[in-house]
Amino acid sequence: MTKTVNIRCKNTGKTHKVPAGFNLEDVYEMLELNMPYGCTSAKVNNKVEGLHYMIFSDKDVEFLDVTSQSGMRTYTRSLFFVLVKAVEDLFPNVKIFIDTPVSKGYYCRLVGLEKTLTVDMIDALRNRMKEIIDANMQYHRRMAPTEEVIKLFRSRGMEDKALLLESYGKLYAPYYILDDSIDYFYGSLLVRTGQIKVFDIVPYYDGLLLRVPDPKNPTELQPFVEQKKMFSVVEEQHRWQSIMGVSTIGEINKGNRMGYANQMVIISEALQEKKISQLADRIAAIPEKRVILIAGPSSSGKTTFAKRLAVQLWACGKKPFSIELDNYFVDREFTPRDESGDYDFEHIDAMNIELLNDHIQKLLNGEEVELPKYNFQTGKSEKSGRKMKLKPENMLILEGIHALNPKLTAHVPASTKFHIYASALTTIMLDHHNYIPMSDNRLLRRIVRDYKYRGYSAEQTIRRWPSVRAGEEKWIFPFQEEADVMINTALLFELAALRPQAMALLEQVPEHSPEYSEAHRLRKFLDYLVPIPIEGLPPTSLLREFLGGSTFNY
User: Fold this and answer.
1) Which of 14, 44, 250, 489 could anchor a disulfide with 301, C-beta 3.0 to 4.6 Å?
2) Is the dihedral of CA 82, 83, 89, 95 positive or negative?
């Protein structure tokens, strides 16, 4: 008699008996779910697994497609492997680096080409990718002793993966096979290449842009968004990585083990401080620029950046003052509401734009104003008793999510404003085919900070994160390319510095929690990092805003 196990399926809302030893793909077909965009992966007891995963005991299962973040990651990783194989097939001595997410796609560099990448070469790659997809090749997942997997990658000249796995810490390591190509990915892949339906590759600067489906409409590509300034920051980060001699987590771990951690910290901090100093020099050289507007997404470090910029402006002979935009909320009764009927404090119209513009104009004209104080308990704006008047050498610094939105300072002369976008733009990679999502860096920062200073658990922070990200997409990202300057607040070593505190908090998320899946994913990622002690961090470091020990007052 065939042994069966119970599957509690979230998609059907029922418990199903299935034969023990079925994999997730078998279960999906047995339940006849027929998800409109197909199935990419599934959550099994709140851990994301590939459809190859075999079931031998009772499980909770939720099947995922590309409209979910986890499902899209599975789809994208599988597409990466197809691109890697196409490059291997057409250009055997060339390496491809799947680099930073930009312009709603993934910037990729081909290293070792004998000539400049041409449109014809990209067309050939696209055609080869289509052939691989049409052949419906199977992705094979293998497990082997980690030291054997390391030897395998070294024998193929894939040193970046060997270095990463030397920090893995597990007895056995997985790897993937696609025809005659091998690769390593730190998450699940699809079962077959034929499951990839939508993609494209197009020329992008000196490389190419791998385009992926739009999660909101997976039958179409994500709409292209030009991000020249972001790309220039990415290129600058690559130059900094060359100075440091590190571009992957494996290289950082190697340097850490060899005793170079303190050197990495010192040089990274010096490069960032130099950038801030140069920016202050640029602003100070334009006398009419007296209103500095700084925007950035959650946990981008914009508050500490604003304070460090103010210090450098003082060193240039300027005397900046900060205006807290949180004190310019409208009275609660006038606050817009969201789709659920709740107050939407992130809406631009939650700000008293008229009062803010009036105060800035008067200050620029040399008049005195009394700044407001917002009472968050009563939801009313009150007088603060704090009066301000600017002298010719003074300037204003305003930092907040709407700082780049033209509506916020619509009546302030454009000639007086200087716009800065600050965010943690992670360009360090796990290895040459595994990028680190930029939002992961900020989420880890926020998890640590929320627990330390706001009393929130990692579970609570992860639960709020989707709504935070939705607000960023609506109110911050559309204006980022309008900035005069884009600043990267990420430090090359910072993920290793965040690891000890973040890991301890993520381990507290219970398995039954819906947030466990994300916590588990972040823990798996952090497992690759050799921790860097934070004692050597300067007290003015941007990371101190999250890890503690800053000399700045917040």
Assistant:
1) 489
2) negative
Question: Do residues 22 and 46 touch, judged by C-beta distance below 8 A?
Answer: no
All domains of the chain in start order, with CATH: 4-65 (3.10.20.30), 70-221 (3.30.980.10), 228-547 (3.40.50.300)
**Residues in CB range of 431: below 8 A, 6 or more apart:** 158, 160, 161, 163, 164, 184, 248, 249, 250
Structure-token pair, residue 526: 């952090």
Residues in the chain: 554
Beta bridge partners of 146: none
Token digits for 455? 């009393």
Tell me how crowded residue 531 is: count the other CB atoms within 10 A of its CB. Answer: 17
> Which element (helix H / strand E) includes 262?
helix 261-284
Task: State how far the Cα of 535 lies from the Cα of 200, in Å rounded to an integer.
Answer: 46
DSSP for 51-110, written as a single string: TT-B--S-EEEEEE-TTSHHHHHHHHHHHHHHHHHHHHHH-TT-EEEEEEEETTEEEEEE
- The percent of the chain in helix, strand and coil, each rounded to the nearest 5, is 40, 25, 35
- Characterize the bridge pairing of strands 394-399 and 291-295: parallel
The C-alpha atoms of residue 309 and residue 280 are separated, in whole angstroms, by 6
* 142 Cβ contact list (under 8 Å, min separation 6): 174, 175, 176, 177
CA angle at residue 157 from 153 to 158, to 5 degrees? Answer: 50
List per-residue pLDDT tens for the chain, 554 residues long: 679 999 999 999 999 999 999 999 999 999 999 999 999 999 999 999 999 999 999 999 999 999 999 999 999 999 999 999 999 999 999 999 998 899 999 999 999 998 899 999 999 999 999 999 999 999 999 999 999 999 999 999 999 999 999 988 889 999 999 999 999 998 999 999 999 999 999 999 999 999 999 999 999 999 999 999 999 998 898 888 888 889 999 999 999 999 999 999 999 999 999 999 999 999 999 999 999 999 999 999 999 999 999 999 999 999 999 998 999 999 999 999 988 888 898 899 999 999 999 999 999 999 999 999 999 889 999 989 999 999 999 999 999 999 999 999 999 999 999 999 999 998 899 999 999 998 999 999 999 999 999 999 999 999 999 999 999 999 999 999 999 999 999 999 999 999 999 999 999 999 999 999 999 999 999 999 999 999 889 999 999 999 999 999 88
**Nearest to 360, CA basis, from 388, 402, 331:** 388
> Is-contact 513 466, C-beta < 8 A?
no
- CB 185, CB 80: distance < 8 Å: yes
Query: For residues 418 and 286, what is the distance between their CA atoms, to the nearest angstrom?
Result: 10
pTM of the predicted model as reported, rounded to 2 decimal places: 0.93
> Which value, in Å, is the radius of gyration of the alpha carbons in the chain?
25
For residue 185, give the nearest of 163, 201, 161 by alpha carbon.
Answer: 161
